[in-house]
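Support request, please re-run this one:
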Amino acid sequence: MEARDILIRPIITEKTTALMGEGKYTFRVPLAATKVDIRNAVEEVFHVKVTAVNTMRYEGKLKRMGRTQGRRSDWKKAIVTLKPGDAIEFFEGV
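Re-run finished. Output below.
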């Protein structure tokens, strides 16, 4: 898996924006991605030093539309902590 395939998209909410001040950045990643894969991808793409990676796995919600029902996809979130002094410029405008 390539580095650009591992980082699907950043997650930008009020809570994650507050975490950016602490040097923590949040990404949506594939279910199969490991912490080592995520660390290597962030370091390669953004040229920063990662000190910790925390992951959370979420089950897709059950949704109904009239009589029919379906499920949203399961997904995984990664919170990446950077070395003090490092920052990802991509998020600085947020």
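The first helix runs from residue 3 to 6. The chain has a mean pLDDT of 93.
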